[in-house]
Amino acid sequence: MAAQTAGIEMSGLRRFAMPGWMATLALTGVAGIVIRVLLYRSKLGIPDSDEGLVGLMVRHINEGQIPTFFWGQTYGGSQEALLTAPGFAIFGSSWVALRLVPIVLTALTAVVLWRVGRRLFGETAGAAAGALFWIWPTYDIYKLTHQWGFYASGVLYCGLLMLLALRIVERPDRLRVGLFGLVLGLAYWESSQIVPIAGVLIAWTAWRAPKSLRHVWIALPAFVLGALPWIVWNLRHDWGSFHFPITDTTTYQFRLRIFFSPILPMMLGLRAPFSQERLLPGPLGILTLAVYAGLFLLFLYGAYRSRRRNESMLYLIAAVFPFIYAIDPETLIEHDPGYIVIVTPVLALLFAQLATTRVRGLAMLAVALLVTSVTLLRMDAYHQGADAPTMAPRNIAPLVATLDRLGLNRVYSDYWLAYVLDFDTKERIVAAQNKFSKLTFANGQATPTDDPFNRYAPYENEVRSARRHGFIFFDDWTGMPRIAPQLVAHGYRRYLVQRFTIYALPPEQTAGG
To answer: What are phi and psi of 491, to 5 degrees?
Structure first.
């Protein structure tokens, strides 16, 4: 009788706990939305030219121009731009419409991680994994609220490939193996950053489900189908995706060291991205190091315990990733962990396995929300400080009004203004990026040498061939003392607006004017 009563009481407690857990997940969902709205309105949410480029790509897609890659690059697919095109066609182009796609893709990734987590750790930890990814890592919220081309789809593909690998291990039939190959092909076209994750998953799946190898004949053509745009473009362009100008001279060992500190701590939230400030200030900073060391020991313990279980997949990916990541010199940006966003679904799952009970899940989500809040405030403060990156203001209407008053609709400018101006004016004003290394003069009008890293050459051609074009510089541009006297000497007049300096010839002084 006592046992029966205890059983009834436990059943009642479970029924009571379930609504509370569902409320926790719902509140986490709302918190993620609120955080993104606040980020959008903060300094962190100001659009930049990388984002403007995607918006311009979308506009041109709706005009029938279908790119294979992000403009000016031979890597980074156009899938997110293609997904955005219907929204632009229906609702018109705007920064909000542009950002909806990465936000939705992030939400879909959270759902996929729930499905992965429940297979690995059970329903509670699976739900916690999805909820955690919606509010953490902090840098992901920043990166995936903006539309920067292929980062949001990258994390979705990471989650999908893990889910499909687990499904193959459960039942290695032709459909599941073929679907894995197709998704892998699409993922590779979208971002070559998937390679470290995909390589581990292929090896792990072959180890856990050797019977899947008999269906490789299906997976290979499926991969080719998914990666077909990438393959066709490279056949036509001498395999240009493998031709990268090496501008970094650091060693492999140095890049590997930088990965473990400060890049990984910045992604975990133990340091603030950009400023590298430790989570705990002042003398308490030593505790941040202790936490990092503790997480490393927990990782080793978990890897040992899971060596014969499916969750070993996560530990293998996490262990191999930094050593492949460090091969490419172009991934080294000491103050920005952007190139490891692709692996963050794995990090979320590794932490979510600790949520074996709803109480632990609630505690984990509360800590994640606190870390995200503190880190976002520090990131925003950095963007308002003296070391903030160069970017155009959110509202460039005064600049546009001045250009209209001067009759300038073709201009050269810094990269970080050019594509914002192009997008905001719907290409009524065309700005071409330039580094202004050298000017030449013909009939009194200045023309800079072409930018060797131009993202969209047609803009440069259009500005160069214009009867009259102007120059826009950020006020604090260090090259102004070198360029400005040359322009003034040839009759250019100077105009100040917002944080910009415009140089333009009077209309009557322009050749043919």
So the answer is: 95, 5
In sign, the C-alpha dihedral spanning 176, 177, 180, 186 is negative
Four-CA torsion 321, 327, 331, 336, nearest 10 degrees: 50
Q: Before 262, cis peptide (omega within 30)?
A: yes
Question: What does pTM read for this prediction?
Answer: 0.93
Amino acid at 330: E
Name 339's Cβ contacts closer than 8 Å, sequence gap at least 6: 193, 325, 331, 333
d(CA 173, CA 422): 50
SS (H, E, C) 408-445: CCEEEECHHHHHHHHHHCCCCCEEEECCCCCEEEECCE
Query: Which residue type does 70 have?
Result: F
In the predicted structure, residue 466 carries a pLDDT above the cut 90: yes
Separate counts of helices (H) and strands (E) for the chain? 21, 7
**Omega before residue 137 within 30° of 0, cis:** yes
Distance CA 343, CA 315 (A): 12
Residue-wise pLDDT tens digits, 382-441: 999 888 888 999 999 999 999 999 999 999 999 999 999 999 999 999 999 999 999 999
Give residue 20's pLDDT: 80
The SS3 call for residue 500 is: strand
Give 33's contacts (C-beta < 8 A, 6+ positions apart).
Answer: none
Q: What is the pLDDT of residues 34-56, one digit of tens each?
A: 999 999 999 999 999 999 999 99
Bridge pairing between strands 410-413 and 470-474: parallel
Beta carbons of 81 and 58 less than 8 angstroms apart:
yes
| Residue of 181, 475, 165, 147 lying closest to 313 (CA atoms) | 165
Question: What spatial distance separates the first Cα and last Cα of the chain, rounded to whole Å?
Answer: 102
- By 3-state DSSP, what share of the chain in percent is helix, strand and coil, each rounded to 5? 65, 5, 25
- ∠ CA 135-383-39 to the nearest 5 degrees? 30
Burial-class residue 503 by CB neighbours within 10 Å (0-12, 13-18, 19+): buried
Task: Please state the three-class secondary structure of 379-414 as a single string.
Answer: HHHHHCCCCCCCCCCCCCHHHHHHHHHHCCCEEEEC
Bridge partner residues of 446 (DSSP): 441
Strand partners, 448: 439
Instruction: Tell me how long the chain is.
Output: 513
Q: Which pairs from 336-339 meet CB under 8 Å and 24+ separation?
A: 336/266, 336/273, 336/274, 337/139, 337/263, 337/264, 337/266, 337/267, 337/273, 338/139, 338/143, 338/151, 339/193
DSSP state letters, 268-309 = HTSB-TTT--BSS-GGGHHHHHHHHHHHHHHHHHHHHHTTTS
Burial-class residue 471 by CB neighbours within 10 Å (0-12, 13-18, 19+). Answer: buried
Confidence class for position 341, pLDDT limits 50, 70, 90 = very high
